[in-house]
TrEMBL record:
Gene3D superfamilies: 3.40.50.2300. InterPro entries: Peripla_BP_I (IPR028082), SBP_2_dom (IPR025997), YtfQ_transport (IPR054837). Residues 21-278 form the Periplasmic binding protein domain. It comes from the Bacteria. It comes from Neotabrizicola shimadae. This is ABC transporter substrate-binding protein.
């Protein structure tokens, strides 16, 4: 959770002077920006020379960056993979060069021996937690849900959809009536929500919006307000990440629930790398972060303040 953020750097040693390449997806969301800054802080605290590459949402840029890191002979590579498939070739090149690769926050469909470990949340569980919250909140009332999906082909979009559907299965009163990608961005979230509202009787036919991340939820909240409805009451808003902006929306009564995703994937990743490089300790293949639900009952103002204080 948030309390552990950055604390692991205090005891970890042994990465001083190591060169680590980091292929980041881009800056599509507030969460992504927080992960970038936490990763840089974690590297600095450990004396790691971090080579940062922003792929601007393109897998081909990530593949190029990884090839560049291999050519430079880095000690390790961190990669947040934008989509789940298409990694076998470049990761095989890293393996042949004996460079350990650690996946951050998203999973891939590739043989597990192509990476040292994956530090990520259980994304199916995140979707399930969001769906269970909705089930518990609407009870037996009929509820038409519109879904804003993340980036097409990304593991969080695939898994968060699956987990939510699992949670509402068996509750015939809850139905997903529309589902489209908003690419994890605020602007697309707003645009797609505008379309949903128009298509569903100006929004009168919508009970809840489920967004695969907070940024799309924030965009949807704006669209709902522009349509003359009240987000948080006329239309329930549930999403994932727990970034500061969703807590300010909760303070305003405009968002109802979020599932926390820690931006500190690098801390556990560097700990695992340290133990591997210095003691030969092979980490578990999957290091799973927590998925905690927050609602307006959880003092959203203080959650906002805490995260702002951590530099989100
Ligand atoms: O992979 C994690 C997801 O990517 C976050 O939930 C989202 O905000 C980001 O874009």
């Amino acid at each position: 959770g948030i309390g552990a953020l950055l604390s692991s750097a205090a005891w970890a040693q042994g990465l001083e002077g190591k060169v680590v390449g980091f292929s980041q997806i881009g800056s599509e969301s507030g969460w992504r920006a927080a992960e970038t800054s936490v990763t840089k802080q974690q590297a600095e605290a450990r004396g790691v020379d971090l080579k940062f590459a922003d792929a601007q949402q393109k897998q081909e840029n990530q593949i190029k960056a990884i090839r560049g890191f291999i050519a430079q002979g880095v000690d390790a590579i961190l990669v947040a993979p934008v989509v789940a498939t298409g990694w076998d070739e470049v990761l095989t090149e890293a393996k042949e060069a004996n460079i350990p690769v650690i996946l951050l926050d998203r999973g891939i469909e590739a043989p597990e021996d192509l990476y040292l470990t994956s530090v990520a949340s259980d994304q199916v569980k995140e979707g399930r937690v969001a769906g269970e919250w909705l089930v518990g909140t609407v009870g037996d009332k009929p509820c038409n849900v519109v879904e804003l999906q993340g980036t097409v082909g990304s593991s969080p979009a695939i898994n968060r959809k699956q987990g939510f559907e699992e949670a509402i299965a068996g509750h015939a009163n809850i139905t997903i009536v529309r589902s489209q990608t908003g690419d994890f961005t605020r602007s697309k979230g707003k645009e797609v929500m505008e379309g949903f509202l128009k298509a569903e009787d100006g929004g009168k036919n919508i009970c809840a919006v489920y967004a695969h991340n907070d940024d799309m939820a924030v965009g949807a909240i704006q669209a709902i307000k522009d349509a003359g409805l009240k987000p948080g009451s006329d239309i329930l808003v549930v999403s994932i990440d727990a970034v500061p902006d969703i807590f300010s929306a909760m303070v305003a009564g405009e968002a109802n629930a979020t599932v926390e995703l820690t931006p500190n994937m690098a801390g556990p990743a560097f700990d695992a790398l340290d133990a591997y490089l210095n003691a030969g300790t092979v980490p578990p293949k999957f290091i799973i972060t927590e998925s905690k639900l927050y609602t307006p009952a959880d003092n959203p103002q203080s959650e906002y303040d805490t995260r702002k204080g951590l530099g989100y």
